[in-house]
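Reference record
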Amino acid sequence: MKLVKTSVKRPVGVIILALAIIAFGLVSVRDLAVDLFPEIELPIAVVATSYGEAAPQDVESLVSEPIEAAVSSVEGIETVQSQSQSGSSLVMLMFSSGTDLDQALLDVRESVDQVGAMLPDQAGDPNIMRFNPDQMPIVTLGLTGGDTEALTDVANDDIVPYFERQEGVASVTVEGGRESEVQLVLDPEKLQQYGVSEQVIAQALNSSNQSASVGNVERGDKDLQMRVTGEFESLEDIERTIIQTETETTVYVEDIAEVNETVKETSETTLVNGEQSIVLSIMKNSDANTVGVAEVIRDGMDELNEDMVSDVNLEMVMDTSEFIEMSIDSVIQNILIAGAIAIFVLLLFLKSVRATLVVGVSIPIALVSTFALLYFSGQTLNVLTLGGLALGIGMMVDSAIVIIEHIDTYRKRGYGAVESAIKGASELAPAVIASTTTTLVVFLPIIYVEGIASDLFTPLALAVSFALITSLAAAITLVPMLSSKLLTKAMENNGRRYWFDRFLEWLRDKYQVVLEWALHHRKTTIAGTVLAIAGSLALTPLIGAELIPGSDEGQMQIRVETVPGNSAEYMEAKIEQVEEEIQGYGDIIETNFVSYGGGGMMGGSANTASYTILLVPAGERDQTTSEFVQEVDEDLQGIVGAEITVSEMSDMDMGNPIQIQLNGPEHDVLRELSDQVVNRIDTVEGVFNPETGAAEGVPQMNIEIDDDQAAMYGLNQEQILGQVQTKFTGQVVTQISEEGQEIDVTMLYPEDERSTIRDLQDMNIQSQTGSTIPLEEVASFNEVQGPVALTRENQQPQSNISSDITGRDLGSVVSDVEDELANMSLPEGYSYEIGGQAEDMAESFTELALALVFSIFLVYAVMAIQFENFLFPLIIMFALPATVVGVMIGLFVTGLPLSVVALMGVIMLAGIVVNNSIVLVDYMNILRRNGMDRYEAIIEAGRTRLRPILMMTLTTVLAMIPIALALGEGAELQQPLAVTIIFGLSVSSIFTLVLIPVVYSMFDDLSQKITGKRKKKEEA
């Protein structure tokens, strides 16, 4: 090849180009974003709407249903889900893969705008946003010391603005804070005495709190803008606001209400390690470097702490970058170990330090070049891209091994260094390119795979492909050039490592005996292979299946739920009990952060508390996170009066392992069926903490207004509803500006006037004529159990049951759960579906199975082009079925379930295992073309190619052992991939050396028979 000759003749240019690539690659590494996993794009949009303190039924009928109907016609939507709970609606829109989400969001916004006028006046403006996993906080900080209100001011005035100015920070949210509020506590007796209603007060305050421009006037040669100022600047301004009564007299606000500046009533509380704190959650920009942003935040913490008063302290609660850094460090360590193992194997076989150096130079060139290509393709450095490089270390030297061995063959024949390099590399360059191409083409079908599998493995496929392409380029340019300069003589045995040569010769003799036996017992060999494949497939039920291997990230969650309606004091007592139990694990738990009592639009309820717990690194504890979760769960079950759920958390949250969706026309029936399903699946081995989304009802007082009776007093439902809301929830009537902040002015009644049922029944409603009547005159009261939340999917009521798993694989547990559900007798019109990870697993397995079939076809096509023959590629492809034996044995021995990661390993094997067969069959054909008998050619080819086949197999297999052992943090994700390739390639190499020669001879016999019959017909 001209490229080979040019590289050998122009060594300076090749060296300069190699150094330039290395320098550019090193610069690219600095700019590559570092993350734990590749970005998983979820085509999901969210429409969130608030609605005062309305009950879930009202939220569903008045807000969720109109929005659902409006957006359902948007193109590309597959599923519309809604969750309606007290005061808020959340509508999730799931689009089909490949949908342009930017355009879809515009369509959704137009549809929601059209229905906006139909929503209640009290409903907030719908907030439409893209669902993005990057919206999860990368760092959580705790602010402790001092008064909560003062800490809130420090957080909002100093800390939030400081961090939001930092590069890469998207937003900072504050939890557990207290907002200032001005309260107008009305005096009911004074209201009645002066004949003033709440509406009159609200109108007076709004009218008095106004500023506006009213035009311009001339003054000399200048125009002066006129502006009337009347905004409230102090509490005194509010107190001195004049109110006109119905009798044409005037009173001041201070005459009928008490004006106080206080904090808003809230039930949200946050504790960090048992101490009340303000918690700040920091989100990064989608294109920002997680590790870099976290480092900026840590530096900022030190700077802020220096400026704070002594008793106030800003401390780290959660830092996701720590696990990322540990995971990346462990992968880099595995890459270095893999590289050292590959170099050792090369040195063992090549018996020359110089030859090993020539081949080994492909590794750093390929690695550094890959970093540059990853940068330009928009990828990040994560455990999968780096794991792909660690897996490909051994494969990076395969092309160089073949090239340098052939160059050495010419040196032994007496050719000069330059001529040997040119001839040896040129002759085998086409075969090496074809061999590498068979490995590369298996990744092409990944482009057409959709969903989670595509998001996870496209970066890995790109990393491995880039590494193989650059290592191939180095093999046909840099290796020949270095060989011509460094290998001044053939790689001869000069007494060193003679024991290894004797071992190889002994191995050749034993292999020849086995091969000769197989050629004389071809049917037995084929039958034995078929039995081995069938036996390995029989292990499938024992292996099981899962979606993604779990990583021990040391994060867990505890959810405490009390009976709806219990007081805040009761919840605090349960929190204290949980805290006492947690303190007993001080040597394992690093940080715990709890939030309870609600907060945020969809942030839980008054009877729910959520703990987020960070454990010490895995290397510093004897238990895995999963084992620790089960232990804590058992200990906390002794706390009575609360339902406590303990679960493991992960940065790559794939949803609940098991999720059962019940569909039907009635929420009440679905709630009953949900309880039945939970009881049934709880008996299945491996099901852990099943729970239903249809929680126990909240005590609710229904006020049923008698329209006829209300009409007699000139009232309607809207007027009565407004007055009840004002008395029992308060009404924001205006705002006051204080030190640059807008503070709500809320009008409400004294607490002792709005706390009991009697207060509700005795409440006076003002009619249009100004007279007052008790509420019970126009309404009746009925106490019921109202729902906590109502869920719908595709405009039909739905109830979700979710569960974690433990002790068993996902596939086995799902199979048993399906058996239990099949035995249930559901009412007519009700059905169920299995979702969660189980659904994603089934879809991903199907997608990857199709990708595997397509990959096998592409490998065959490449070999057919290489051999210009359809028969020889078919012979070589017989190495693939035998791969199943190694894969299944490997997963069974290591106790790993079949996962999408393991299936990705099978796809990679389709391109790797054929390389050994290509080397073997190609040499058989060469020997036969040189006149050797078929039997002798097979034996000679086997003995001759045993050494390079062993070398290529061992460099690939041994280099993956550190990954297969899952050494370091976060290594569990690549483990199935490494195990699959190690066992699959090892076993298939054995079958290749024995089975392929047998298949070759059988196909040759068949070919001769067909040819003989054809000749006889021609002669006849």
